[in-house]
Automatic annotation (TrEMBL):
The active site is at residues 46, 94. The keyword Magnesium applies. It is an enzyme of class 2 (transferase). Catalyzes the condensation of isopentenyl diphosphate (IPP) with allylic pyrophosphates generating different type of terpenoids. PROSITE patterns: UPP_SYNTHASE (PS01066). CDD domains: Cis_IPPS. This is Isoprenyl transferase. The lineage of its organism: Bacteria, Bacillati, Actinomycetota, Actinomycetes, Kitasatosporales. Keywords: Magnesium, Metal-binding, Transferase. Homodimer. Binds 2 magnesium ions per subunit. The keyword Metal-binding applies. It comes from Streptomyces cinnamoneus. Its EC number is 2.5.1.-. One of its GO terms (biological process) is polyprenol biosynthetic process.
């Protein structure tokens, strides 16, 4: 399809499912109607390094720009009425990066998690999903405090997947179940998918409906493997620091048009 036709299709798609800004500086109505809206949106935020390289800047500047992008995306998700937004901030594999980059990421993370308390008034509850292993205690404290300060907020849960790995999460859950079985608290024959789900960290977090990856890469990179089982994938070329709440709203509108079958057959 030509570029012109793609932009035309996007424009039409917007017209069909999206209402214009209300002009009063207030929140815009959601792009997707109830019942077509994803409950759980997860984002693999990729492309910070390339964003910086294109500007001749150090990779750390890309990570800073990536953090600045967060507020617009959180605003878009709130407008859209998303209940759960999971953000892949640091993977268990990212420790393979140069020490200086890891140190910079830890400093940025600590400042960011510290600064998000204000979102509590807007109904955002922060949760952390990931392993404590190797994390500086200041970062663990900042994560726990962000969780504590926003504990009572109910409009949207934002999950920081920080030092997260999908396989790590599954392995730790399996170990947890094995411990319960050994002590006789759990019958191994009773372990099925729903029992397993209930033992995952943050068991109240539903399966991912919509998984977005920025920067043109098309991989899952060990992200929330259990909950991504039936996610709809959206790969976009935009680098994470350039991604905005409006991009998110456009993708939510596109999600509303997808037909989900969960392995079954639908007519037509
Ligand atoms: C994502 O951007 C941020 C983190 C993984 C912390 P990258 O740092 O992976 O950016 P690229 O892929 O090198 O452009
Ligand atoms: Mg990357």
């Amino acid at each position: 399809m030509s570029k012109w036709r793609i932009s035309m299709a996007r424009w039409l798609l917007r017209g069909a499912v999206r209402l214009p800004e209300n002009g009063m500086g207030g929140r815009r109505p959601p792009a997707a109607s109830d019942g077509h809206r994803p409950r759980h949106v997860a984002v693999i935020m990729d492309g910070n390094g390339r964003w910086a390289a294109r500007r001749g800047l150090p990779r750390t500047s890309g990570h800073e720009a990536g953090l600045r992008a967060l507020s617009s995306v959180l605003d878009g998700a709130l407008e859209e009425g998303i209940e759960h937004l999971s953000l892949f901030c640091l993977s268990t594999e990212n420790w393979n990066r140069p020490r200086a980059e890891i140190d910079a990421l830890m400093r940025l993370a600590e400042d960011t998690f510290d600064s998000f308390g204000g979102y509590a008034e807007r109904g955002v509850r922060f949760r952390w999903q990931g392993s404590e292993a190797r994390l500086p205690s200041a970062v663990v404290d900042a994560l726990r405090e962000a969780e504590e300060r926003t504990r009572r907020s109910r409009a949207m849960t934002v999950v920081f997947c920080f030092n997260h790995g999908g396989r790590d999460e599954i392995a730790r859950t399996a170990a947890d179940l094995a411990r319960s079985a050994v002590t006789g608290r759990l019958d191994p024959d009773a372990i099925d998918e729903s029992v397993f789900s209930r033992h995952l960290p943050l068991p109240e977090l539903p399966d991912i409906d919509m998984l977005i990856r920025t920067s043109g890469e098309q991989r899952i990179s060990n992200f929330m493997l259990w909950r991504a089982a039936y996610a709809e994938f959206f790969f976009v070329d935009t680098l994470w620091p350039d991604f905005t709440g409006d991009h998110l709203r456009d993708l939510v509108a596109a999600f509303a048009l997808r037909k989900r079958r969960f392995g079954a057959v639908t007519g037509g």
